[in-house]
Design a protein that fits this description.
Elements: H1 17-28, E1 44-48, H2 54-62, E2 67-72, H3 75-87, E3 93-97, E4 110-116, H4 125-135, E5 136-148, E6 154-155, H5 161-172, H6 181-187, E7 191-199, E8 205-206, H7 211-223, H8 225-232, H9 235-250, E9 255-256, E10 259-266
Helix pairs in contact: 1-7, 4-6, 5-8, 7-9, 8-9
Length: about 270
């Protein structure tokens, strides 16, 4: 995650967020992300905005000859990530506290820079991408995975809920960040920019939502209650919004779509 003058508040943080992030990672099918991230032999890999380190730990377990670094702004997430890596016997990984807008690394330091579900939380994602480029080696690869259409793309639309979704979600995150990343890659001078798409497994739901994904949404709505209250003007309005949101996802004939963009570029 990230937090600075360039960032939005991480509205879904709570005391239980580390455990939620790990449950979310299990639902997301992280091993299927690996083909989108080319990791050469003995690579130096950065997971920027690593949260609890689920993807960093997967890199470390999959590429035993690589050196993995996870960085996040929150000390509690870093402590959680380090403890999990130690428990899993991963010795080719380290976690450090730091800001993605001012990474504590020298220029041209990493063969691979990865981030997922980070740039929707920042006001100026291009600045973060430029920092990723700075710390990547010549010939190194940057891969950013971001959702598009998050929680606002549905059919059939609910005529009462949809206007609230269109009001609330963009004030918490950028629901359409995915489509914006490739132009930013080009703008900071990355080469061979490519984009792959797939349904986001967390947030694409056809018919009634399953209990695990429903709970994931419920936990995020609960954590963001104070922010939603500010947007809608009253706690009762925030609670009604959360109830309507979950009821909509419970509907057996409703379909909700989120695309996951994998954008990859090379440092020339």
């Amino acid at each position: 995650m990230s937090a600075s003058e360039h960032s939005r508040p991480y509205a879904i943080h709570s005391a239980a967020e580390c455990d939620r992030l790990e449950r979310q990672a299990a639902l997301a099918g992280l091993p299927d992300h690996l083909p989108f991230v080319p990791v050469p032999s003995r690579a130096h890999v950065l997971d920027a905005g690593c949260g609890t380190g689920s993807m960093a730990r997967l890199f470390a377990a999959t590429h035993r000859d690589a050196q993995i670094v996870g960085i996040d702004i929150r000390a509690d997430y870093i402590a959680y990530a380090a403890e999990r890596a130690d428990r899993e016997g991963l010795h080719n990984i380290e976690f450090r506290q730091g800001d993605i807008f001012s990474l504590p690394f020298a220029d041209s330091n990493f063969d691979v820079v990865w981030s997922k579900y980070v740039l929707q939380w920042v006001k100026e994602p291009r600045l973060a991408i430029a920092e990723f480029r700075r710390v990547a080696k010549r010939g190194g690869v940057i891969v950013c995975a971001n959702f598009d259409g998050f929680a606002v793309t549905h059919w059939p639309e609910d005529p009462t809920l949809q206007p609230q979704l269109d009001e609330v979600l963009p004030q918490l995150v950028d629901p359409f960040i995915g489509r914006k990343i490739a132009p930013m890659f080009l703008d900071v001078g990355l080469a061979d920019v490519k984009v792959d798409f797939e349904p986001d497994r967390l947030f694409t739901v056809v018919g009634a939502i399953d209990p695990e994904r429903r709970q994931n949404f419920a936990d995020q709505l609960s954590a963001a209650r104070s922010y939603i209250t500010k947007i809608l003007g009253a706690e009762t309005a925030a609670d009604q919004f959360a109830d309507a949101f979950l009821r909509y996802y419970d509907g057996p004939a409703t379909c909700s779509y989120t695309t996951l963009y994998f954008v990859r570029g090379t440092v020339p």
